[in-house]
Design brief:
Largest sheet: 7 strands, antiparallel
CATH topology of the largest domain: Thrombin, subunit H
Distance between the termini: 120 Å
Structural class: alpha+beta
Mean pLDDT: 83
Strand content: 25-35%
Number of domains: 3
Helix content: 25-40%
Low-confidence stretches: none
CATH class of the largest domain: Mainly Beta
Shape: rod-shaped
Strand order of the largest sheet: 5-4-1-2-3-7-6
Radius of gyration: 42 Å
Order of helices and strands: HHEEEEEEEEEEEEEH
Number of strands: 13
CATH architecture of the largest domain: Beta Barrel
Amino acid sequence: MALKKHHKILIGSFTTIVIIFMIASGILIYMLYSDLNIKYNEINQKIESYQLLTTSQINEITSTLQQTQLSVSSINQTFNNQIDLLRASTSSDFSKIIGEAVKSVVTVRTDVAQGTGFIIDGSGYVVTNAHVLSGGHQLMTIDYNQQERSTKLIGYDKDLDIALLKLPKGDYDYLTLADSDQVEVGQKVIAIGNPLGLQFSVSEGIVSAVNRQGSNALDAYIQTDAALNPGNSGGPLIDSRGEVIGINNFKISSGESLGFSLESNYIKEAVNRIAQQQLNQTLIN
């Protein structure tokens, strides 16, 4: 039986509604899926962000711990150094400092006289008193291991009684020149030299005065009661840090314990002046 017109309209309308419903449902489902996918991606991004943040914080904490460990080690080292320095400055036992310093001290010998010198540069530059070389024609140095080396005179400063020498090419232990402006009366010092031919002898004393005037009319000398005798000339006057504060220069023979050393800042000036004139370079900053 053929459908009547109004039946066809009803069926068509129903079909249309079903199709529209299906399309709407599909769109809704797609929208819900898209929204869920967006939220899923956002959650993943947040998780990744939190992971990166956590990793960064862990790395930062690890770095902080490492820096803390280094700081603690540095503090401990500084503390130990201060303890060693305190022991050296309050005790008569300079053995540790002497054991290191003597490696950089040499006997300076000519064919007519003998004195002392000390190495101020790792390549082998040596400082001594110019008067130690006076009248000599041959020059050599002898280290604490009794090794003799032919040595070259670079130049000298007559007014400050400073001579600059050069050892053969090599890698040498050397002494650091301190800032003599910081030297204080009463601080302990040691003098290393070769008094009366007794090689690498050490005498201890204190700084009796600073900025004493020498025969050159310069207020450039440290007065010390450390024993100085012929042969000590050119040797280092060393503080409790193991640094050179002066070069032993002369004593007043009519009195006891009246030794004088040219201050280290004047040594620097003289050495650099000689080096500029002869080598066109600066040795000590």
